[in-house]
Amino acid sequence: MSDRTKARQPAMRRSPQRARGQQRVSLILETAEQLFADRGYEAATTNEIAAAAGIPIGSIYQFFPNKEAILHALLAGYRADLAAAYDALATPEFARLPFAVAIERMLGVTIEYGGAHMAFSRIALLSAPGSQLAAAADTLFADVLARFEALLAARAPGLGPHQRRLYATVGLTAANAILARAISAKHAGEYTLGHDLLEQSSALLVAYLTLAIEQI
Fold first, then answer.
1. Burial, 36: exposed, middle or buried (Cβ in 10 Å; 0-12, 13-18, 19+)?
2. Are 206 and 199 within 8 A, CB to CB?
3. What is the pLDDT confidence band of residue 15, given thresholds at 50, 70 and 90?
4. What is the largest CA-CA distance in the chain?
5. Looking at the predicted structure, is the pLDDT value of residue 44 above 80?
6. What is the pTM of this model?
7. Please, what is the angle between helix 132-155 and helix 67-89, to 10°?
8. Is 40 left (phi over 0), alpha (psi -120 to 50) or beta?
9. Which residue, 108, 76, 139, is CA-closest to 202?
10. Does residue 105 contact residue 94 with C-beta atoms inside 8 Å?
11. Does the pLDDT value for residue 10 go beyond 60?
C-alpha cells in the first residue's frame, strides 16, 4: 500500500487508553462487522451500528469520525489476523510438505478465516468495482498474493519475480471467483453446492500452480 493511499484512509479520532474505552471500541467493531456481513457495508449506517450495539451514536463518533473509519479499523484487524495465521504455518514441517498440500493449507487459512468472519468474505470477494470495499479488497488480496509469491519463490526458485506474480495472481483470482460463487450459493441456502465449490477452488489453485512450476 502506498503512502498516498494510507494518507487518504480515515483514522480513528483517538485510541482508547482505558479498559472501558477499549471494550467500547471492540463492541463497535464487532457490531459493525455483523451488520456489514448481514446487510452489506453500503447499506449499514452508523446509526444502525449504534442501535444494534445499544450505545449512543456519540459513543461511535467519540472514536470514529465516520463509517469508513470503522471499515478501515476492521480491515487492519483482518490483515493482522491473517498475517498471524500465515506466520503460524511457517514451520519446518510445513516446509517439508508436498507442494500441493502446502497450497491447500495456505488457501485453507483464508477460507477458514472467511468462514468465521463473513464481513471479511464480503469485502474480499463480493466488492463492487470502484467502491470503497473494492479498495479494501485489493489490500487484502495483495497480502494473500504476497504469501503465495513467497511460497512459489521457496518451492520454485527457477521462477522469476514476474512469473511468480503472474502465476499467483491468475491462480488466486480464479480461486476467488469460485469462492465468491460458494458464498452466494450458501446465502441462497445451497449449502452442498457451496461446500463443493470451496473444495473446487482449492483443487483449481493446486492444479494451476503445480502445472505452472512443472513448466520450469
1. buried
2. no
3. confident
4. 60
5. yes
6. 0.86
7. 10
8. left
9. 108
10. yes
11. no
